[in-house]
Amino acid sequence: MQKDNIVTIEKNFETFHLTTTRYCGNMKDVNEREAFCNSFGIDSTKIVFANQVHGTMVKRVSSADCGTFIADCDGLITDDKDIFLCIFTADCMPVFLASRDYSVVAMVHAGWRGLAGGIIESATIRFLEDFGISTQDIFAYVGPHIGQCCYQVGDELKKAFNRPADEEFFSLAKEAQRQFEKLGIKKSYINSHCTCHEYEMFFSYRREPTDKRIMSLIKCK
Asked: Domains along the chain?
């Protein structure tokens, strides 16, 4: 099978990164994840995982964290060239962030709660405080996630984003783009795949509640 059928990659984002599809299997399953990594030449022992609690915490990690799930966080950031940052999704947004020279990267899990709480801003603060990198020198890419076409929402989400009561569908990507612009991130890309209606390519909790997940990875250049 062609690699382009197995992973999605934004060509304009010039560092190692990818999001798997369901063809790769359930990436929460250790055996299936290792099989995928082996087929792509990825050292699975060099991956650091976020525990993902739908919060806003972004933590700095290094080689010492390889193979572990970092507690109570939904974002990881590093300048360590020897590791991969990983999150799992099944409708939420995987948000990839990188410095202009790709020497610092971050991987963020952004569901609506994290997005409303400011997880993207939390990541940009870590770029600045930990590495002295301002938002105008950050690139952003949003990977496959549930699209506005399928994301019918309720009152709690509408209140969180101050949306009209009669608004039936919501775009996570448009809200992420709005936040990028407000924060001063000038270069960003949005993947157009919808995890919910493209059932042949992705797992979707909204379409069919499942524990299975796709995986997003990023590594410093």
From this structure: 3-219 (3.60.140.10)
